[in-house]
Structure formats: C-alpha cells, structure tokens
Design brief:
This protein is of the alpha/beta class. The protein contains 13 helices and 12 strands. The protein is globular, with a radius of gyration of 19 Å.
C-alpha cells in the first residue's frame, strides 16, 4: 500500500513510518522543512513538501495514495479555536480526496478527551469539558467520512508515548525535579495516567490502516493507570532526591507551567481492551516505569531537550498529545 503520512517527522511519526515500511508499505510524508524532508528520507520515505495550511498539497498527497495516516497537529495553543479550524480544514482536505474510494483514513487524537475520574473505554463519548476538548472536532470530522465511502478511524494516543527521545510530559517532571532538587506529585499522587511505548503505538497505527473497520475509535494505551506518585518515586530514585506532595498552586510554580500542573493533577485512566480485541494488538515493549529505569530519560541531552520544549515556549505545551 502507498501511504501518505502527515506528522511523519515528529516524535511518534518516525516510528510509524518505520513500522509501515518494515511491513512492506511505501510511504510519502508531508514535509514542511528541509530538516523534516531529510528525516523522512533517512527512514526510507519520500518527502512531499507542504504544510497543514497548504490544503492543495494535502489533497494531492491523499489523492496519490492508497491510504492516509494523519498525525500532524500544531499551532498556537493559546488559540484553541484556531487549532480546531486548522485541524478540521486539514482533515476535510484529506478526507475529500478519498470520498467513495473505500481507502483508509487514520486520524489521531488523545485519550485526554475522555472524562476524568473513571476508566474510559473506546465506546464512551468524549467529554466536551475535558482538558483536550479541542481535539474532539477533529475526531468527529475524521469519523464523519466513514459515511462517505472512506474507511475512516481515529487512534487516541495516551498522553505519554514513551521511548527514546521523548520530549513530552514525563521529561518535564524530570527537568523540574532537577531544578528544584525534589521530585513532586500533586496531593497524594494516586491519580492515574495512561502510557504507551512508541513502538507499540506505531504497530497500532499500522493495524488501524490495514484492518480497522470504518468508524472505529481505537485507544493507543499500553498501560491504563500508572499513578503519578509511582512516576515521581522512580524519578526521585534516579536523581537521588527526596519526593514531596504539592498543592496545585505549588506544582504550577515547581513546573514553571500552570498548564502542566493541571495535566498532572488529572485522574484519567483509559482502557484499550476493545482495541486489542478488535485488531489483535498487544503492547509488547517496555512499560513507562521500565523505561524510566533503562531508557534515556536521565541523560544530559534529555534534560536539555525538556528545558527547551517546556520552559521558553509555553504556547507549545502538549503538542500533538492532547
């Protein structure tokens, strides 16, 4: 299958591109820069120059493909309405190119669209008051093509997609612990956090492309409920610093980012049982706590990367993860 991929040069995207190529697919990847194009070539994919704002480029990429995996997401997170418009316009352009073809369109969202405080499943409706509600319109736009002759589905990724080179939420906790000399959690730290290894997520995207029925909602979750306290304890052990509970206000100061503090206060367990049963997908790689023991999270490079992502530009928080 010839697959058009957006977001193939991001954090999770390269693993997805590599998985697709290893399975015998050919990949064309959207590239908005020379750096992105070089990254795609290094993976064995063909760059397709354009951006999420270049709708004609998106249409051309989709029209020339046997299927589409759409992972790219971005913009100004201080303007959620702008994020929604941009994402929905991109999905409409991709989907329109596939109408009536029966070809697959795999969209991407995040499990943080689900209601907090309970174990959510793929069959539950997303919560319009959730912290990531700005991802819901994109989900609906993608799934709407299932009634228009497109084998459309959505993969909701866990907020932590872990593995080498992670620059997401967990490195922000580590960076804060280094700065403050203490590893912190909010309250008793019993709130639950889903996670998935990047290679397991990549395999799920491939299976979704190849097999998912039209209208499917899939949860890319390897672990449903890792407690924030257990993460903080693992960080404390690695850095040899004490662990401490904080209030939400104290956590905002500790993390130098109120948005992050709100995220880490959430109790957002999510099941992937239906996804596993539907596609025969089984997470096989390291757990988050194992990665925090054997991975690259505590290297100087990882710390520098986390500081660069989370401290200077607060408008980029949570990119691609909501």
């Amino acid at each position: 299958m010839h697959v058009f991929v957006t977001g193939g040069s991001g954090q999770t995207g390269p693993a997805v591109v590599a998985e697709l190529i290893a399975a015998g697919h050919t990949v064309t990847g959207l590239a908005r820069s020379d750096t992105a194009a070089a990254r795609l070539r290094s993976l064995g994919a063909t760059p397709h120059r354009g951006s999420l704002d270049d709708l004609d480029s998106l249409r051309r990429g989709a029209e020339a493909a046997d299927g589409v995996v759409h992972m790219a997401y971005g913009g100004d997170y201080a303007d959620p309405d702008g994020l929604i418009r941009r994402d929905r316009a991109a999905i409409e352009a991709l989907g329109q190119a596939l109408v009536g073809s029966g070809k697959p369109l795999v969209g991407t969202s995040g499990t943080l669209v689900m209601r907090a405080g309970r174990v959510s499943t793929e069959r539950d409706e997303p919560d319009p008051d959730s912290v990531a509600a700005f991802r819901i319109p994109g989900e609906r736009a993608c799934l709407g093509f299932a009634d228009r002759g497109v084998r459309a589905c959505v993969v909701r990724l866990a907020p932590t997609v872990h593995g080498p080179g992670d620059h997401g939420f967990i490195p922000a906790l580590i960076a804060a612990a280094r700065r403050a000399g203490v590893s912190a959690h909010i309250g008793d730290g019993a709130n639950r956090w889903p996670a998935v290894h990047r290679c397991d997520a990549a395999r799920l995207f491939r299976l979704a492309l190849e097999e998912a029925p039209a209208g499917s909602v899939l949860h890319g979750v390897g672990e449903s409920a890792v407690t924030i306290r257990s993460i903080a304890e693992r960080i404390a052990r690695a850095l040899q610093v004490p662990i401490a509970p904080l209030t939400l206000d104290q956590a905002a100061e500790h993390l130098a980012n109120p948005f992050l503090a709100r995220f880490f206060s959430l109790d957002v367990p999510v099941s992937s049982r239906h996804t596993q049963a539907l596609l025969g997908w089984r997470p096989e790689h390291a757990t988050l706590l194992e990665d925090l023991t054997t991975g690259d999270y505590f290297t100087p490079r990882a710390s520098a990367r986390a500081e660069e992502v989370w401290l200077p530009r607060h408008d980029t928080h949570g990119r691609g993860r909501g």
